[in-house]
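Saturday, quiet lab. Running sequence design on the structure tokens for the scaffold JK sent over.
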């Protein structure tokens, strides 16, 4: 029997590690059913294993070297700036657009899809970079969702200052995604539907595996049960996995200690001495009920210079607080490292850093990196020359923190900070008429776009990096017996346009979630 529809549930930060104990305890029965009757794989995300770039790598089938997005920030050592190339997010065609050319596809809440592009059905852009207006195609869908579900894109409460309230709000948002998605499935009847729960990984980050995280997963499991029909393919996938943190490595503090980086933190230091920190100001404005107004009235340049309780500053302030002339290296969080210059001196610095980072251990003797790669061995494409010069694959339990201004190189997780960190091992489970059973060899997140295109009878563009996972299909199914069609032409590229989703509102949101430390 051929499937009528494909339902893909995107679970940000999901991996077997966190859900297997709950499955064994009988708390996630529908997920257990899908796993036991379907095909599973340990899927590898692209490096770094982070929401940005992995959701875009998933939807386009392209590595970050083609996308030009390497984390929540790019670093230009020669141009002396730290920035996010927001205009590149919507340059590349996404696989559901190609499915929609011959049939129909609907998308709910996938990160880095704001502003929404036209698709033959519907799209609802998602957090953390989406806004509360202009987030749907067709346009009138926004008011319909708001009127029917009181739908919203992002949460209001801070995970740092109001953790319990924020956790409850996240569970409500997860429920909203599914309720809206099922309603849109009935209304538009697409052959392909993707529903993604970005904030699930925020629960992993701040609460790891406690009851607040389980509650979010139980909501996911309950809604998945509604899709378990005989004629539906149901796929569970994630952009990366998660693991509990035991070591925080402040990589820029280490680079400064080793003589590769020099900071000028006089303004941030003065604010810290006066007691002006992000956490205190956030708590004060929240208690007074003026948080949103204060953000609107305070210039972004001022906000960027306010340090955290630990003395650190966020992404934009790296540009102003780094002595670029005296620095030869700068790191982002979770793996990317950039080195200034070229030629023999550049190669010497990179060789030394790769060796030192590969051998570096925390005070307990635990290694920091599973592997340390040269950028050109990981990234290829039009933007490869902008890629990190070094990319670290963090060891399990290690969180590489990329802020400036911290004094110590190693620390333990803060009580109000991240308890869980991303890892490269991601989740893939598929169940339904077209899919087989058992476990298949390790796959890449880049393989999913070609696989879903082939599943729906579409040709795979020549410039997609992934391969069709024929081994995932049932041997009696049409997608297994059909030859893979590879186009001779590339998927379309659109003209880059500035979309301004990287507003102060979005930057504050990313900071609250722990990305811009």
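Result came back. Writing it out in full:
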């Amino acid at each position: 029997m051929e499937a009528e529809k494909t339902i893909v549930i995107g679970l940000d930060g999901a991996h077997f590690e966190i859900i297997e104990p709950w499955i064994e305890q009988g708390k996630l029965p529908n997920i257990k059913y899908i796993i036991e009757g379907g095909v599973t794989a340990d899927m590898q995300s692209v490096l770094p294993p982070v929401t940005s770039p992995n959701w875009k790598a998933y939807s386009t089938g392209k590595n970050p070297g083609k996308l030009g997005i390497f984390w929540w920030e790019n670093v230009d050592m020669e141009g002396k700036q730290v920035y996010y190339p927001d205009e590149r997010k919507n340059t590349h065609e996404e696989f559901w657009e190609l499915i929609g050319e011959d049939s129909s596809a609907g998308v709910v809440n996938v990160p880095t899809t704001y502003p929404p592009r036209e698709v033959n059905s519907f799209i609802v852009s998602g957090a953390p970079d989406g806004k509360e207006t202009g987030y749907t195609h067709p346009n009138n869908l926004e008011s319909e969702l708001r009127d029917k579900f009181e739908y919203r894109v992002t949460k209001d409460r801070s995970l740092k200052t109001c953790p319990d309230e924020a956790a409850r709000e996240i569970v409500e948002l997860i429920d909203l995604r599914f309720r809206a998605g099922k309603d849109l499935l009935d209304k538009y009847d697409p052959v392909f539907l993707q529903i993604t729960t970005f904030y699930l990984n925020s629960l992993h980050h701040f609460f790891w595996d406690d009851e607040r995280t389980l509650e979010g997963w139980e909501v996911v499991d309950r809604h998945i049960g509604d899709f378990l029909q005989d004629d539906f393919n149901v796929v569970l996938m994630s952009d990366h996995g998660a693991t509990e943190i035991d070591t925080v490595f402040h990589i820029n503090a280490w680079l400064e200690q080793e003589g590769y980086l020099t900071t000028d933190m006089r303004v941030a230091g003065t604010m810290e001495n006066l007691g002006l920190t992000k956490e205190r100001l956030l708590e004060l404005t929240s208690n007074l009920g003026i948080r949103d107004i204060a953000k609107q009235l305070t210039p972004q340049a001022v906000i960027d210079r306010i340090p955290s309780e630990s003395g650190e500053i966020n992404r934009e302030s790296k540009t102003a607080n780094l002595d670029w002339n005296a620095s030869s290296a700068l790191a982002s969080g979770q793996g990317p490292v950039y080195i200034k210059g070229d030629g023999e001196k550049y190669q010497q610095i990179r060789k030394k850093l790769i060796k030192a980072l590969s051998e570096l251990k925390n005070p307990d003797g635990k290694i920091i990196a599973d592997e340390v790669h040269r950028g050109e061995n990981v990234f290829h494409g039009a933007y490869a020359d902008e890629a990190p010069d070094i990319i670290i694959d963090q060891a399990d339990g290690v969180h590489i923190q990329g802020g400036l201004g911290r004094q110590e190189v190693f620390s333990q997780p803060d009580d109000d900070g991240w308890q869980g960190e991303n890892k490269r091992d991601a989740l893939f489970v598929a169940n339904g008429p077209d899919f087989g059973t058992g476990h298949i060899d390790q796959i890449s997140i880049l393989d999913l776009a070609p696989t879903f295109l082939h599943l729906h009878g579409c040709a795979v563009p020549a410039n997609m990096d992934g391969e069709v996972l024929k081994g995932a299909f049932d041997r009696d199914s049409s997608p297994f017996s059909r030859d893979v069609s590879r186009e001779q032409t590339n998927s379309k590229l659109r003209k880059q346009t500035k979309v301004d989703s990287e507003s102060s509102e979005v930057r504050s949101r990313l900071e609250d979630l722990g990305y811009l430390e």
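Notes for JK: The two ends are 51 Å apart (CA to CA). The chain has 19 helices and 21 strands. Ask whether to fix the surface positions before the next round.
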